[in-house]
Structure formats: structure tokens, C-alpha cells
């Protein structure tokens, strides 16, 4: 974090373990007590493996953390040697269904490159009422585009799926259907980190921080939150409960709103900036094997006034280029850039 000191930021590499709202302190794992006038909670997700048998410590794999992704690669290499059915999907209330779609299409591509696609049955199992809902209410054209792609790639699809439990090599759905697998990657729900859950008065039942449109804690205007740590209840009524995807672009916008509002409060400003989550624009590059799909929408959550899906503008280079740009921007602290 070399960019911190020039900006007057002290960088402390430690874990926050308890936030005391009333004493205005944060206690850390290494025994520090830090006091604050304003607090920003941006601790991201904890993965919820409460559905029996799910998760890398049970019978399914996950792509969400570097150690889990490395474990998943080993599982993938085993399936190349001993082919069997693969089930990719998301559990009910999953936090980021889009990332599971990306994994599905990248996996399909890799199976073809390794000449194993013909001998492996591939399943997509999703709580969405239709493919392309993504937990955001869908996008114009997304459902037919994804349906055609899934058909073309001969991927079996189960929508409205709720996972009851997973046993070694078998997923049982809530409707009693059983799916055998040699490898399964299921995206879990995202809940709040332990520090939020351990800090009285900070969170809702899932450990996520309830915020106003200014990103201030609903009950404490000196506490702000941004990113996956905030609570965004799904506005959609679906047969199977869905999580709202709190992706990178909204996290970036929220962090800027938080910074601006703290500056306004310090300057004794009364009017704070508001950016309701559902009205933040949708901006996303979806990786899909040897392809990219660019998604642009005036609002992240449906209804959208304008939304467009552009398949394959730069083959699979769009995501790579964006990643390089974004990491460069973050490493140098150029937060004012888009
Ligand atoms: C597999 C996957 C693929 C994704 N792909 C995309 C994508 O293509 N595009 C997109 O826009 N979004 C994507 N997302 C979502 C994106 O990762 C999140 O929106 C983004 O990372 C949210 O940022 P954040 O700051 O809220 O959380 P994080 O990026 O998780 O950052 C939280 C930070 O807080 C730290 N932390 C946690 N607890 C503590 C503590 N107690 N004390 C101190 N530090 C702590 C963590 O170590 C971490 O550094 C993807 C997510 C997943 C899981």
C-alpha cells in the first residue's frame, strides 16, 4: 500500500475484531484500540456455507477466494483424468450469480480445449426464475441471449432450483431431484464478516450493515458502509429467494459517496449526497469463455430505462484490459479516475 502515505493515510495491516459504536473505537486482533470520529465499514463478504454439504470444507467447490480457487483447479484436473458430470450453479440467496455464470462458461471452454467436453455432462442449476435474471430483475435481451448460448453449448439448465443438501457426489434439490456430480461449484450467499456480527447494534440478522441512501448507518450517522458489507434487501419477489449482486462498480460509487459525505460533514455541510443502490448505473464485463459480454444499464436494478448488452466486442480481451486498468488505478491511488 505504498500509495497511502503520500495521501496522508496510515496503513495498518491488522484485523478489526470489535467495533464499539458508543465508545467510538475499533479493537484489532493484535491488541490495538483505534478511535474514530467517522467509521467506514467496507469488509466485504463472508461466505455462508450453512446449507448442509456445501462449500470447500464439505463436498462442493468454490471460486470466491484464492485458496478455494486453487483447490478448485485441482478438482478440475482430477475430472480431466476421470471424467464425470459437473454441476455449476448458485444456492438460494446466492450473492453473485453473475460470477457463477462466468465460471460456467469459462469451464465449458476449458473442457473443450482439453478435449473432454464430449464425455462430460454439464449442468447449470440456479435459483433464478429465468436465466439472465442475475438477481437484478433481468436485462433486456439477456434471457434469449443466454438461453441460446446455453442450448448451443449443450448445457442442461434447471431454474427455480433450491438446494436442500449435498452428499458426497450428489446434490439433492428441495423438490427431491438428485444430481450426481464428479465436480460441483456452487456460489453461496454472502453474509457479513465476523467483526460486524460481533459488534452490537451495527448489523441486521445476516451481519450486513443497514444504510440510508447517503451510505450512513440507519441508526448512527457517524458510521458509513460500502460494498458487499451493506444490506440490500432484494426488491424482487421470486419463487426461490435471490440475493442482490453487490458488484465492483456500485462498491466504487458508494465509496466515493461515502468519502464525499464525510468531507461535507467535516465542513459542517448539511446536505449529503444520496445514491440509492438500485439507481446506481449497471456497468459490467461478463467473461464467457472465449468471449466477453458488456452490460450497460442506467440503473443496476430493474426497471431500467436504458440497458444494452453487447456480446463479444473485444473477444475475451475486454475483461483482461479492464482488470489491468483497474489494478493500475488502485495501486497508484488514482481514485478520481472512472
Ligand atoms: C468469484 C467472484 C467474481 C466476481 N466478479 C466480479 C466482476 O467480474 N465484476 C464486478 O464488478 N464484481 C465482481 N465480483 C464482486 C466484487 O468482488 C465485489 O463487488 C467487490 O470486491 C466488493 O468490494 P468490497 O470492498 O465490498 O469487498 P472486498 O473486495 O471483499 O474487500 C473487503 C476487504 O476487507 C478486508 N477485511 C474483511 N474483514 C476485515 C476485518 N475484520 N478487518 C480488516 N479487514 C477486513 C478483506 O480482507 C478485504 O480486503 C465478483 C465476486 C466474486 C466472489
Write the layout of secondary structure elements.
Elements: E1 16-20, E2 25-28, E3 33-35, E4 39-41, E5 45-47, H1 66-81, E6 86-90, H2 97-113, E7 122-125, H3 142-152, E8 156-158, E9 163-167, E10 170-173, E11 178-180, E12 183-187, E13 190-192, H4 194-197, E14 216-217, E15 220-225, H5 248-266, E16 282-287, E17 292-297, E18 307-311, E19 313-316, H6 317-331
Parallel strand pairs: 4-15, 6-7, 6-12, 7-8
Antiparallel strand pairs: 1-2, 2-3, 5-13, 9-10, 10-11, 14-15, 16-17, 17-18
Describe this structure in words.
- Helix content is 24%, strand content 23%.
- It is an alpha/beta fold.
- It has two domains: 5-46 and 191-274, FAD/NAD(P)-binding domain (3-Layer(bba) Sandwich), CATH 3.50.50.60; 55-187, FAD/NAD(P)-binding domain (3-Layer(bba) Sandwich), CATH 3.50.50.60.
- The strands form six sheets. The protein has a four-stranded parallel beta sheet with strand order 8-7-6-12, with helices on one face. A three-stranded antiparallel beta sheet has the order 1-2-3. The protein has a three-stranded mixed beta sheet with strand order 4-15-14, with helices on one face.
- A hairpin with a 4-residue loop joins strand 2 and strand 3.
- It starts with 15 loop residues before the first strand and ends in a 7-residue tail after the last helix.
- Flavin-adenine dinucleotide binds at residues 15-16, 42-44, 63-64, 96, 99, 193, 195, 227-229, 246-249, 251, 284.
Amino acid at each position: 500500500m505504498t500509495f497511502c502515505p503520500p495521501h496522508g493515510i496510515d496503513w495498518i495491516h491488522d484485523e478489526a475484531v470489535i467495533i464499539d459504536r458508543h465508545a467510538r473505537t475499533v479493537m484489532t486482533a493484535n491488541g490495538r484500540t483505534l478511535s474514530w470520529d467517522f467509521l467506514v465499514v467496507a469488509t466485504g463478504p463472508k461466505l455462508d456455507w450453512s446449507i448442509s454439504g456445501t462449500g470447500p470444507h464439505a463436498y462442493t467447490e468454490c471460486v470466491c477466494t484464492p485458496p478455494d480457487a486453487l483447490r478448485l483447479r485441482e478438482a478440475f484436473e482430477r475430472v480431466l483424468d476421470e471424467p464425470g458430470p459437473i454441476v455449476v450453479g448458485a444456492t438460494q440467496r446466492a450473492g453473485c450469480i453473475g460470477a457463477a455464470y462466468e465460471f460456467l462458461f469459462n469451464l465449458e471452454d476449458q473442457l473443450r480445449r482439453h478435449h473432454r467436453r464430449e464425455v462430460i455432462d454439464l449442468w447449470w442449476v440456479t435459483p433464478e426464475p429465468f436465466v439472465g435474471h442475475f438477481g437484478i430483475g433481468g436485462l433486456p435481451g439477456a434471457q434469449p441471449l443466454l438461453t441460446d448460448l446455453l442450448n448451443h453449448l449443450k448445457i442442461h439448465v434447471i431454474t427455480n432450483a433450491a438446494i436442500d443438501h449435498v452428499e458426497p457426489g450428489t446434490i439433492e434439490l428441495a423438490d427431491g431431484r438428485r444430481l450426481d456430480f464428479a465436480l460441483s461449484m456452487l456460489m453461496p450467499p454472502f453474509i457479513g464478516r465476523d467483526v460486524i456480527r460481533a459488534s452490537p447494534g451495527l448489523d441486521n440478522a445476516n451481519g450486513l450493515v443497514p444504510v440510508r441512501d447517503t451510505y450512513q448507518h440507519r441508526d448512527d450517522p457517524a458510521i458509513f458502509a460500502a460494498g458487499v458489507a451493506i444490506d440490500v434487501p432484494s426488491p424482487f419477489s421470486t419463487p426461490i429467494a435471490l440475493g442482490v449482486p453487490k458488484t465492483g462498480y456500485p462498491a466504487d460509487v458508494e465509496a466515493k459517496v461515502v468519502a464525499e459525505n464525510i468531507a461535507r460533514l467535516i465542513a459542517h455541510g448539511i446536505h449529503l449526497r444520496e445514491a440509492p443502490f438500485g439507481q446506481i448505473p449497471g456497468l459490467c464485463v461478463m467473461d464467457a469463455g472465449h468471449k466477453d459480454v458488456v452490460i450497460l444499464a442506467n440503473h443496476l436494478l430493474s426497471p431500467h430505462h436504458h440497458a444494452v448488452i453487447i456480446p463479444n466486442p473485444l473477444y475475451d480481451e475486454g475483461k483482461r484490459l479492464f482488470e489491468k486498468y483497474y489494478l493500475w488505478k488502485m495501486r497508484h491511488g488514482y481514485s478520481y479516475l472512472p
